Amino acid sequence: MIKLLLTGLWVCVITLGAVYASVQINKPAPPVDPATKKKEMEELVRGESITIPVISNGAISGYFLGRVSFMMDKEKIKGLKLPMTELTTDELFTLLIGNKMVDLSKPGAFDLEKFRSNIKDSLNKKLGDGLVAEVLVEQLDYLSKEDIRNNASRGNKNPNPGQKIVEGVKIEEAPKSSGH
Predict the structure, then answer these.
(1) Which ranges constitute the DSSP H helices of 26-111?
(2) How many other CB atoms sit within 10 Å of the CB of residue 110?
(3) Contact 168/46 with Cβ under 8 angstroms?
(4) Cα–Cα separations (whole angstroms), residue 151 to 145, 147, 156, 161, 165
(5) Could you give the count of Cα atoms lying within 13 Å of 93 in the half-sphere of its Cβ?
(6) Cβ-based neighbours of 131, under 8 Å, separated by 6 or more
(7) What is the pTM of this model?
(8) Does residue 118 contact residue 95 with C-beta atoms inside 8 Å?
(9) What share of the chain in percent tops pLDDT 70?
(10) Which of 3, 18, 30, 44 is deepest in the core (most CB within 10 A)?
């Protein structure tokens, strides 16, 4: 009689285990948000702070202060052995000095989306299509020579921050990966 009860208990445990396992195996995968998946495939490449002189009439009239970072495709960036920070800085110098994208006589006319698009297109053309997914402008300001002199004469107390061209995005410090 005890053998019969233990055999029945054994069959019940095996049946419950099999049902549980089949439910777990056939459980539908959670829906994947395309935006989340896209973000997982991208890596933040921090840009360095740059100071670009503005030359007018053969003399320096002021400086652009900027920092631009990039969201880049993780898979494509793995194979690159290029110094990303230096390449992106060079491209920013070219766009801000060579193409005169910022007209200081019309500060309200600056087109941030066009600026981002030009940087993205130019870097993708230079480094490979689809490498740069997004351009993040953290800072873009203009400081005239007069502002710099005034700040220095006050001993840098209450310095004039200059003309803010773009109200930048805040980027949290992410852990570094793969040495780029």
Answers:
(1) 34-40, 74-78, 84-93
(2) 15
(3) no
(4) 10, 6, 5, 9, 19
(5) 12
(6) 72, 73, 76, 77, 80, 123, 124
(7) 0.64
(8) yes
(9) 81
(10) 44
